[in-house]
């Protein structure tokens, strides 16, 4: 049975570098104009972010955001094929038999998206949409799920659907269990169906239509086994598994879990945390065996059963565990995906996830390992030498600025809630901190710190150019201020949306970009002048190219170099994790979900890629947005640097 939950990835890093080449076959030969080098895809790394998974025989089928569907060979860990379906996020996958699969999810990424489902041919991933009679009034939101029952019927839940069982031969409704809308998370075994609506899990016997409430509360997923139902539920801020035997009281398991799965016989429950798998007898829940996992930093985000093996996913890496022998393939679950990325003018790259590494010429040359208690926090995309680590202990955050290969990091202790960090070109840091009745912008200065200014506590800091400006927003009104809190200009969000999708500023330049999910506005932030306004879907990332007019727009299936008012050049590059551009504006680095890193020469990329049409013009930008001043600055009293006033202690060298 397939189980999926979304959990945060925790990372940390420290220690001296070690030489460890990890690309023994060398970088791949460039096949795209402008491509300098590209590393090999890593086996067992998923090529796209996954939100749903199911398996049959030696093939696992994954669904992800933007309709991505892909297959992985469970013997080799290599991708088989992929296809993008005409839908938004895929939230559920199930095997129908005869190499046919059913997937369900959302029609789009919009708030008014409906439930959609497709039947997919496993040999080609060609799909046929199932015509669902969705109703959107009254409005209801529910996560789409599919469950294949023992009699072949298929339950499809989701927004706008009643609770019904469908005939897979015709995809017409065989039985309506409940005409109400809003049924979401679902699981089943045999003739038993567990399904959630309004925070309550109901248990249905689909053969008799008998039903009862099983649980009320916040949970992520459920399963049904022989004589017992299992739910992963939050108790006192900790994720636990609870067993609900037929006719008996709930049995909570004592140890927290990241995920769980039930074996095909229904006689065993397998739970997992970061450090181990546990095999439990059912219905008692007694632990019969523990299988250690060597990676303790990343929580498991998905888990499913395949014969006598369990597959787990952590940090985008798929691992197979043999329950009889305890053998884990691959042995390490440490991902090679670069969640943070920086590139220098010479093409040298700094990459990081739960460890940091450097690359030259497509080869990894050194690594700095990660401590469990610290987390990667920030890199500057044009600085391949420095990175920031943090450790949170209650209300106190310790921050380290490390230079790769240097064993003596600079250290600060933040006594206030820490929201974000930015790196300056000279190796200092700028922080956003929470203060009583306000927020603060604080900058390091030598071994100490200085408070730059306070601002409206209701405002959100969207970006900081550490050498020049701060961008703040509240209720659709955006202020650009200098680092001493002086207002430079007031910008407006397209359509005056109160919730700005994102705002970014050009480092060392004057441009800024604002996006409201439907439209991007490009501004001269020093003068408050609108430069361009275009309609685009929400990009994954936007990067200004220094010393050039182009911007890099990263979407889920492509990277676009946009020259405002002139046109676009498009590179097909699905599932980019992170972009970075060198300070001289000549190098573009990209990291991918499947572990690849690629380095491009931007001039070569432009020369090899024809100029396409400009992006469609946006709607007129309102003259004014919002009534609230994002700054509302109160000057610091006394003007003293560091200490408690800036929320920072120390500056000691370790």
What does this structure look like?
The protein is built from one helix and 59 strands. It has 654 residues and is mostly beta strands. The protein has a domain of 88 residues: Beta Barrel (Thrombin, subunit H). It has a five-stranded antiparallel beta sheet with strand order 1-28-29-30-31, with no helix packed on it. The chain has a five-stranded antiparallel beta sheet with strand order 2-35-34-33-32, with no helix packed on it.
The general outline is globular
- The average pLDDT value, as a whole number, equals 85
Helix content: under 10%
The number of strands is 59
How much is the radius of gyration in Å?
26 Å
| Uncertain residue ranges | 1-29, 634-654
Largest sheet: 5 strands, antiparallel
**CATH C-level class of the domain at 43-130:** Mainly Beta
Per DSSP, what share of the residues sits in E-state strands of 2 or more residues? over 45%
Architecture (CATH level 2) name of the domain at 43-130: Beta Barrel
